[in-house]
């Protein structure tokens, strides 16, 4: 191989590496249930590129939520390696994992997980309030609130920012959750059955919103879903079975 070819190959490899926003290799996770050890994940591996939409399917109890919690740094694997935004997470302190999670990962859950006493706008602001701390928050408050309002407006909730979750429909609550997940401009959005708690019309609206946002903003998206139609819209689909991830 010539020097030019070598340099070109190295550049491609570096570019490809930069495009990978999350990489999980041979992830293992077990749980003790009484005297029995249940091996849920047995070497699950996946790589996510920037702007890629990947769906994960599998039967109930296959370990999809367990996998999502590991990818989102909520839990730690028993074995294997995991890197987020090019940062290896093994050996990280709890505080460093929390900072990395808040900065690089957004979550969208089936049941929204909004704080009921806060308004839609306040719920969206939470990630940045946590990220900045009290003193930096005071300096950045105006700019951050402007971004939160812009996100709500982009999701069709510009006039609902002052409403608490109890005053919103299910579809509106999920849109608030999407805005909150996007607030820190994360590298990847992890979605656990994001349309599973909605009626058919609201489900279609939320699915369209998620795919449109991902395409427009080059946003990486992971969708855990039981909906084959939703999975078909993804760039690729994986099936979690026997503790491993395989192409659908």
Note down, in words, how this protein is organized:
43% of the residues lie in helices and 26% in strands. The protein is an alpha/beta fold and 248 residues long. It has one domain: P-loop containing nucleotide triphosphate hydrolases (Rossmann fold). Strands 6-7-8-3-9-10 form a six-stranded mixed β-sheet, sandwiched between helices. Strands 2-1-4-5 form a four-stranded antiparallel β-sheet. Helix 6 links the parallel strand 7 and strand 8. Helix 4 packs across helix 5. The N terminus is likely disordered.
Number of spatially distinct domains: 1
CATH architecture: 3-Layer(aba) Sandwich
Number of strands: 10
Strand content bin: 25-35%
Strand order of the largest sheet: 6-7-8-3-9-10
Instruction: Write the H/E string, N to C.
Output: HEEEHEEHEHHEHEHEE
Please give the CATH class. Alpha Beta
List the helices and strands and how they pair.
Blueprint: H1 3-19, E1 20-33, E2 36-49, E3 53-57, H2 64-71, E4 79-84, E5 87-88, H3 94-104, E6 105-108, H4 120-154, H5 170-182, E7 188-192, H6 200-217, E8 220-224, H7 228-232, E9 236-241, E10 244-247
Parallel strand pairs: 3-8, 3-9, 6-7, 7-8
Antiparallel strand pairs: 1-2, 1-4, 4-5, 9-10
